[in-house]
## 1
Amino acid sequence: MANIGRPKVALVVSDEERGELQRLTRRAHVNRAVAFRARLVLACAAGSSNTVVARRHRTTNQTVGKWRRRFVESRLDGLYDEPRVGGPRTISDAAVEAVVVRTLETTPKGATHWSTRTMAAKAGMSHAMIGKIWRTFGLKPHLTRSFKLSPDPQLVDKVRDVVGLYMHPPRNAVVFSFDEKSQIQALQRAQPILPMDLGQPERQTHNYVRHGTLDLFAALNVATGEVLARCKQKHRAQDFVAFLGEIDASVASELQIHVVLDNLSTHKAPAVHRWLLRHPRFHLHFTPTYASWLNLVERFFGLLTANALKRGSHTSVPQLRDAILQYVDAHNEESKPFKWTKTADEILEKMRRFGIRTQQVHGQ
């Protein structure tokens, strides 16, 4: 049977070209685009089809075919972009690479990170040029972000369990993502808020007066995006049991109920165990320790904070409660489910790569 579609260009790589392609793949910090193209060519040279290479490298068949063709036509030169209009370059590739490597692998004496001016003095360039190089390669030495790897011994099983519920929910069942947003403060700005005007954003004072706190219990229906919410003064085991009763009353009796939640001690209290024994259609699925990002209701909490709480000014706890419940009602009127796209295998593989990189950085 004849092959269907456009025939792919034959690709043969010499030993010298293979060595250069492998060298380019190791320069991902300096030129990610060229390193990516070199990996595509090496994969094609190994005999894999465009479809297999595209799936493995998370790109499209058209992209693989483009760089296969460019390499066949122009060899290694085909992997580089065409020269663009403008004045001649004054900084060589080697100088740019030296700045990138120094930024990634070293720190200035007596400091924790480079600034454009300290790097400019070290590299013999202007601070504007250093800033341009950093922007080009996405380097931000002045920023830092926190992370926490889960030490949960059941991490793999819990990730597969929770993600499986999101992507392939069981039949004749409802899946809820539950959590508490605790200690929400009723904050009143010290002075009246000045509203937005033409050419002027809304303005408010940085200081405030506290008027108490409350806790929000929320259960997100994974299939519909609707949120069942109640405000409580505390988040004790008996409050959690009472909220489970509200979930029970909101779901048809013939359906099973699966609840994704974190490892808070009140979720595992004896009162909760006794209630679950009396309500066998409930099934609790715990997220891994330090893995709140796996709980879909956290996305709703982020929207609530950004749209209703962060810029609010509340003179009392009841006023804060009304603002929260009004936002929940508005959300439910136009609710849409949050779509979970990452499979458990993709999540675990990303965590594995992160762990390996962390060990390599620290020489373990």
## 2
Amino acid sequence: MGLDYIEILKVIFLGIVEGITEWLPISSTGHMLLVDEFITLNMSETFKEMFFVVIQLGAILAVVNIFWKKMIPFQFKDKTQPIIKKETFSLWFKVVLACIPGAFITILFDDYIETHLHTPVVIAAALIFYGIAFIVIEMWNKERLSTISKLEDITCQTALLIGLFQVLSIIPGTSRSGATIIGALLIGVSRVVAAEFTFFLAVPVMFGLSAIKILKFGLSFTNEELLILVIGMAVAFAVSVLVIKFLMGYIKKHDFQLFGLYRIVLGIAVLLVFAVR
């Protein structure tokens, strides 16, 4: 039996939510889990658990599309002779270094986190806590000058420190981009560079997490499951392209306090809604 139009609309809506929230520091996983409380896909719990991670591949492909020239470590002269871009190889080494702490913690605790912490209360608490953190850090940053204003100026030590902050994002509601941006801001990285490094960092992280989730689920998808994944990723890709361009323009003129305020308001709303329910 094929998908009815209601289920397709649900998937499109989830793709839009993913595309918006993956790159804004407001927690995509938190939003997806909360939306699922009200707009539930008629699929198995194991599929939805995998879907909420794998749909992020669409958002990641948007990053690859936009930053392709910065991400590819080769430049072709006269379209035939490849030139190795050493600075890009160096950057990818730092990205891999930053991924190690998160990969280690995820392998150890992912199942426990999903079983015990994927709850509205935990999500709301994380939204509020890091919302306050964004506001406090940005107010503090008004008195400071950024010490790292270029992507290539990020050192291995800085990359590893940012990777340690990324570990915090294993708690739903934290936001992977939010955790890494907060960490980067604290150690003196400019907003634009913090966002760009977060984009680079997302590529291996999300490809790795998606591979783990697909292998745990198994490769035997039904036609309906495969269609849901394709639609969700396609919508997430299209929306992400727009959101990334918006964010990079926004942070050149503004700080992250507005996102902090949004997180606090959303977290309080979630607590109130579920308290009433």
